Description:
The protein has helices at residues 2-26, 31-40, 69-86, 88-96, 100-134, 138-144, 153-161, 164-202, 208-235, 241-252, 256-265, 271-293, 300-307, 313-331; strands spanning 47-49, 55-57.
Amino acid sequence: MIWTDFIESMLLIGGGLLILGVILWRLPEGIAQVISIGQADGKFMLSEVAADGSLQAIPWGFSLTRKTVVMLLIVGLFQWLGEYSYNQEIIQKYCAAKSARAARRAMWINCAMCVPAWGYFMFVGTALYAFYHVFPETVPTEILAGERKAEQILPYFVVTQLPPGATGLVVAGVLAAAMSSMGAAMNSISAVFVTDIYKRHIAGDREDKHYMRVARLVTLTASVIMIGGALLLFQADTLTLQDLWSEFQAIIAGGLLGLYMLGFFTTRGDGRAVGVGIAFAVVFSAIMSLSGLGWLPGGLSQTVRGSIEGYYTGIIGNFVMFTLGYFMARVLPRREKDLTNLTVWTQDNTPLD
Length: 353
């Protein structure tokens, strides 16, 4: 599984390099033209699309009512802290390491590689923008005008600009990336369901063959749900799938990082305190979701959305979870438990490998 992911990642990077190479080869001034067009049109700054379709620079500072550079950096920090704390796909990779030290080393290598990889693929996007700025066509113009989804630009370029053999390589890279992500996700879903729900609460004394059949059924069900969700996202009226994903993740995962932080950085709390924190975090996320859909009574939807930017749902949800959980842990009678190696304060300093 690990080597499969590695090969798929190399295919994806190779496909991106091929696209970038073709763009730079066909542009009259090469990479200098990409940089000059990107700078002139604000492609190297944090910006958002205004109502008239133009790009507006995002200001610095703190705000809960609109996007700012500092707040978006905090959002990104919370999202990726969550990825490395509670994402089952990442946890599986930790467990596959030979030792805790090896897992930490792999995590830091991954962190060091992520930012260059993101910057590289974002630069490919800017290069595509520069290419169709120099060689305008109908479909890219409609995408820039918001008449088509932004995600259509890459497939359009691949089909119309790359030679047949190269087209197959890029398509294979995209499919490889999808297979890598979805395969890990479906494996995580089936493992969590069988181990934490089915085996613990439904049928705990069956043979391994039975659990394997259940895992396969769960995987099939998850695949169908994912396909349906992909179709809904394709039809969704949103600026980009990235924009929709950021808000969606902030809503459905609000409070999870706060829950893990409560466990990592405090020695108090149990299921009672966590339950209170989760309840309030879920209520807050539900209010934000309903306000985004305009389903709150009266003018409450506009009031809520005017007071809190949807991107910040996750930040506030995690704060609510941690604060209320810790408060309830201080108020409720303490239940003594062995916390050795379960928090940052109760490590026994035994060598980890």
